[in-house]
Amino acid sequence: MKNNLNRREFAKVSGLAGATILATRASAKKPGIAPIPIPDGPLTKDDYQALKSEAEKTFKANQVELNGYYFHMPSAGTYPSLFAWDSGWHTIGMNRIDPKMAASEVEFLMLQQRPDGRVPHEVKFKEITAKADLRHRLGDKISQSQFQGLVSVQVDPPSFIISAEKIYSNTQDRAWLERLLPRFERALEFLTKTRDLYKTGLPSIIHPWESGTDSSPAYDQIIKLDYSNPLGGPQRMFLYPAMFTRQKKLGYDLQKIAAANEFIVEDMNVIAITIRAVISVSRMFEQVGDQAKAEQYKKQAQAMTETIEKIHWDEAAGLFWSRYDLKAPKFAKRTTCASLLPLMSEHLSKAKAERLVNDHFHNPQEFWLPYLVSFNAKDEIDKEKIYWEDKLLWRGYCIWTNMNWMMCEGLLVHGYADLARELTRRTAKMIRNQGFWEFYDCRTGQGKNAHPFNWPGVVLDMIHLTWPEATV
To answer: How many CA atoms lie within 13 A of 371 on its CB side?
Structure first.
């Protein structure tokens, strides 16, 4: 029987075959990299000044000035666009260097808000002349279905609202806050109402990229990819864009996408950041004297926290799980930092906070490693063989500094100041040694992937919160 392949199928099969060969070569044993030193002793003024200087250089390298506003690309040579949740992490760090520039970035981001309240995951600008590297340009090319013009149809976790609270505490610019509060409200309404697909008052996402944690192991059982197979990574490269293509064919209609039920997830990373953003809006309304709105959002944050304690908490495991499958809901039982992030809610019960910290975060088999904090529990990833682990972001032995910042916040909320100080100390020493990278290896502390990358700037805020004596 004649076996015919059209050109598209041939290209796909050839690409997968080539990728398999490359993955096999990439997985060959490499010479070990010596772990970087994490000196004993406290954080010093020299540490802080060195990190601040490196942050200033990094932000400058990735800075864009457009229409009278400033914002930052995450890394000009890799991600030359405006990204929503990235801007939250940028401005948390920038707030400790230049609060007015941080305020400008948040305001420029909010000017990209869509009529339905959605703050887009990514917005491209023709004025940006920086170009991504070849791998990311290829990924961008095959993912064009996520864009309407230059604006992504995706949404992002609202880290920028948390940042806004911190910025206002520094600037006390009431006119700025009053311009942005209605936009923050619409953004939260989109997440907690329009995207409340499970009817729980919690946001749902419809694509893995909307979580920010792109290839998290928590999604393996949802999208049914096996990354222990050399083909897993290349297959994911085709699968994620194909999801956008199918959504485009549905006219990006949310109800039709929900009915298709391909990837409808109550993601703990998104939920935890959203709850914390609701708390921030409550506090900002309180600061401008609107007690009714402040109480409204406080009650919403309480209700959302109660909901995840009721639905997403696994008492046996002592963890929160993401939930998927709109027609027959089930849990993605994979231990990542996302399962710990409800610590950021001041409304989380003391007993559950203690389980998260004592059983998991401070567990040397899972997260409390010499280099902090692995996104994935080490005892789980030690059992796996993962091809392309440094190319498939959020897999393997990776440390992401935004997670460190969120864990620091959560520890402080629930009274674990000593752990927050040690987390900050090790984070700061690692970044000072390696510089500003996209992520770091929890086995060696080595910086990896995009460089210079802005997110490690959040360590400046961590130091202000936990080592204030080093900042003066």
So the answer is: 27
Q: Which CATH code is given to the segment(s) 56-470?
A: 1.50.10.10
Distance (Å, whole) CA 319 – CA 309 = 10
How many Å apart are CA 260 and CA 284, to the nearest integer? 39
Task: Give the residue, 246 or 5, on which the prediction is more confident.
Answer: 246
Mean pLDDT of 126-141: 83
Please answer whether residues 90 and 164 qualify as being in contact, where contact means their C-beta atoms are separated by less than 8 angstroms: no
E-strand stretches of 204-357? 265-266, 313-314, 319-320, 322-324, 330-332
Provide the 3-class DSSP secondary structure of residue 79.
strand
Does residue 143 surpass a pLDDT of 60?
yes
* Rama region for 304: left / alpha / beta (φ>0; ψ in -120 to 50; rest): alpha
Q: How far apart are CA 286 and CA 282, in angstroms?
A: 6
3-state secondary structure of 151: strand
Task: Give the Cβ contact number of residue 309 at 10 Å.
Answer: 17
Question: In the prediction, which pLDDT does 352 show?
Answer: 98
Per-residue b or e along 130-140, where b marks 16 or more CB atoms closer than 10 Å to that residue's CB: eebeeebeeeb
- Residue whose C-alpha is closest to residue 158's, from 64, 307, 272, 70: 272
The DSSP-derived string for 32-54 is: PPPPPP--SS---HHHHHHHHHH
Quote the CA–CA distance of 362 and 367 in Å, as a whole number: 7
Q: Which residues pair with 72 in a beta bridge?
A: 63
- Report DSSP letters for 143-188, one per residue: TGGGEETTEES-B---HHHHHHHHHHHHH--HHHHHHHHHHHHHHH
What string of DSSP letters covers 426-442?
Answer: HHHHHHHHH-S-SEEET
- Cβ-proximal residues to 29 (8 Å cutoff; 6+ apart), any chain: none
Asked if 468 contacts 74 with a C-beta cutoff of 8 angstroms, the reply is: no
- pLDDT value for 338: 98
Question: Would you say 37 and 447 are in contact if contact means Cβ atoms under 8 Å apart?
Answer: no
Measure the CA angle with vertex 152, ends 151 and 155; round to 5°. 125
Amino acid making up residue 312: H
d(CA 289, CA 264) in angstroms, rounded, equals 38
Model pTM score: 0.93
Q: How far is CA 137 from the centre of its chain?
A: 21
**Residue carrying the six token digits 């990514």:** 122
Where residue 388 falls among pLDDT bands split at 50, 70, 90? confident
Closest CA to 459 of 46, 35, 48: 48
Residue positions counted in the chain: 472
Nearest alpha carbon to residue 40 among 369, 416, 429, 421 = 429
